[in-house]
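hey can u check if this looks right to u? its 251 residues, i copy pasted from the old doc so theres a chance i mangled smth
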Amino acid sequence: MAVSLSLGVVSGASAADLPAKSRPYVEAQVFSWSGFYLGLHAGYGWGSNNWNLVGVLESPTIIGNPLKPKTDGVLGGVQAGANYQLASWVFGIEADLAVMHGKGSSDGTLLQAGGAPIGITSTATSQIEWLALFTGRAGYAFDRTLFYAKGGVAAAETKDSFNLLQMAPTPQFIDFGSKNNTQVGWTIGGGIEHAFAPNWSAKIEYNYIDLGTSSENFNVLIAGAPSTTLTFRQDIEHTLQIVKVGANYRF
């Protein structure tokens, strides 16, 4: 009887010393920004186009004060790109295309060299119709939140119009027409992107865009006996700033 009791105690102690069954180890998943994506964006842009009168071909003594029509307006479009993540660093490329309604006018006066007014008002109108960016991106990811900078090439379709209004001796409106150009320049900017779902992310972004300077000859045929051509030469500088929000779907 004593032997049986002793064996029972030993058996119970041995069972208590056995290790408990461990739970299976589940490795925590690390979010990755690597891959291709497509998305949409919308935003607002504000620009300042600087018009500088180089000269009037037929009257070199005429000068004009600089005109600065703004190109403020809403924009919306699409983007596509690819990312590659190395540790917490994320590198990528992106292309986006947007239509834009950015248009504004600016009025000034024409003067004789020396500052004497000649009673003629000039009006410049600038417009940006579409905008494309081709950029590289580099950023640092805190898991699902990415802070990034970007820079590259910018292109846009610009439309610049010019006219004169002469009040004396009789009111006369002279329309010099418009010039359409595809301007190519550079852009730099940055933003924040957050992945709110496995394949979806949202972003807010700022871009500064310099489309360079174009030199335009605005000319018109003036009726008379004989008829003459009046030519104004303008240097036009196009710059733009935009803020946009967007969403991307990653593959």
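The first strand starts at residue 35 and ends at 47.
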